[in-house]
Design goal:
It is built from 15 helices and no strands. By secondary structure, the protein is mostly helical. Helix 10 runs antiparallel to helix 11 and helix 11 packs parallel to helix 13.
Length: about 450
């Protein structure tokens, strides 16, 4: 099974969407899975441990991405904070993007007596602690890049040990429920990340190490109480070349799949502009202190989460009932673009909240049909695992490229032009409507 870390640039709402996608990926993987009849139903303890560990993992990913990295960058390089933040996130993210598939395959083939997944969880937690400490103590941006690179590599290692657990330890009849609960835990981590960060600005080391400490507690409990065995004898581990060859496909041969991939890429690209620089927008446009900005991000995240869930659930129901996918992508693109433009023009908190809610509502509408449309358009149904891994790159690659490109847009007019950045994101989001219109394989 191919595993990939969640993109650290995601909002709490999008994290919930990716949790749902991860559950679906397990179901679509064409590798032989354990017979559901021999997997016993899990009980409350497993569910609680799974949720707490997943909460900790998302705290490790989201607290730096939504708050602490931006806060640290403006401390060490206030003059060039926009470009420096983009370099830290972009260059560090490359490692996570490349290491994810490799770590996932190596984890599948691990045959240590201690288990198949435990070594990756423990090793990843240790690496995460090292990365967090390096960032916290960094006196300059280059060293912060080193720390974030270590952190992203750690997330790839952790994901290799954690992502397969649902498929290997939970019967099919419970995966949807537990996957949804994991999504709730991830969403709480997203909302809590900014709020916790706002109270920890007085101690930068604690600001970066607290998420790792919470996750480490979850890992200890998980490793002690959840069973694990070595990989079966004879498990074939493909070469690195074979791993990355699996991500190749011809867009001309499968134009519909290429278009649905491009649509998600454009939406995620535009959204990453917002999620990466909303902290600086609150500081410079609305005049908040870092502490106030963190609390505002948490409050808007909580309200936006309700909008996202409402549109996701309602959209999914209507899409199945009407047997239509494309109209919901059109609605999502318009809502996301409207949200970004509204925030770009926001002179006060009220309009910023409106923009955030529109953005999250659009994310929910997109989530409601995103995975369904992608699976409807799979080029080769017997290779679903391969093509879904390719599809997930549409959200991973923008997390690397967008932060590097964003400072060039922000510099328009002399610098600090976050309005131009968010409007550009809105234009990209509307591009998803165009790509969807050209798709012929679904209605």
């Amino acid at each position: 099974m191919k595993n990939e870390p969640s993109s650290p640039e995601l909002s709490p709402a999008q994290t919930l969407a990716d949790a749902s996608e991860a559950v679906a990926q397990f179901a679509l993987d064409t590798r032989p899975q354990p017979d559901d009849n021999v997997i016993p139903r899990v009980r409350g303890w497993f569910i609680a441990v799974y949720m707490f560990t997943y909460f900790g993992l998302n705290l490790v990913m989201l607290m730096p991405a939504l708050f602490s990295l931006a806060y640290k960058v403006q401390l060490v390089d206030p003059t060039n904070k926009d470009s420096s933040l983009g370099l830290v996130l972009g260059l560090g993210g490359i490692i996570g993007l490349v290491a994810g598939p490799i770590a996932g395959v190596l984890s599948d083939g691990t045959r240590l007596r201690w288990g198949r997944r435990r070594p990756w969880l423990v090793g990843g937690a240790i690496l995460a602690g090292v990365g967090a400490l390096v960032i916290a103590l960094s006196p300059n941006v280059p060293l912060m890049i080193v720390g974030w690179t270590i952190s992203q590599f750690a997330v790839a290692v952790i994901s290799a040990g954690f992502n397969p657990v649902l498929a290997e330890r939970v019967p099919t009849s419970q995966r949807g429920k537990i996957g949804a609960l994991g999504g709730v835990a991830a969403s709480l981590a997203g909302v809590g990340a900014s709020l916790l960060g706002s109270f920890l600005t007085g101690n930068v080391v604690f600001l970066f190490l607290l998420p790792v400490a919470v996750f480490a507690v979850g890992v200890i409990i998980f490793v002690v109480t959840v069973k694990d065995e070595p990989a079966p004898a004879g498990t074939k581990v493909p070469s690195i070349v074979e791993i990355f060859k699996g991500f190749l496909f011809n867009p001309r041969t499968y134009p519909d799949f290429a278009l649905v991939w491009l649509g998600k890429f454009l939406l995620q690209f535009g959204f990453t502009f917002f999620s990466t620089y909303q902290f600086y927008f609150l500081l410079e446009r609305l005049g908040f202190t870092p502490e106030q900005a963190g609390q505002q991000l948490a409050a808007v995240g909580g309200i936006s989460l309700l909008a996202m869930m409402s549109f996701a659930v309602g959209g999914g129901f209507l899409s199945d009932k009407l047997k239509r996918r494309k109209p919901f992508i059109y609605v999502a693109a318009v809502l996301i673009a409207s949200g970004l433009v509204t925030v770009a023009a926001a002179p006060n908190v009220a309009l910023y909240v409106v923009g955030g809610v529109l953005l999250s509502a659009g994310t929910g509408a997109f989530t409601s049909v995103d995975l369904a449309m992608a699976t409807d358009l799979l080029p080769e149904k017997d290779k679903a695992g391969k093509y879904m891994s390719i599809y997930y790159l549409s959200s991973g690659i923008p997390g690397v490229i967008a932060p590097i490109i964003a400072p060039l847009i922000i510099m328009i007019g002399g610098g600090g032009n976050y309005s131009a950045l968010f409007v550009a994101g809105g234009v990209l989001a509307l591009g998803a409507a165009v790509t969807t219109w050209r798709i012929r394989g679904v209605k």
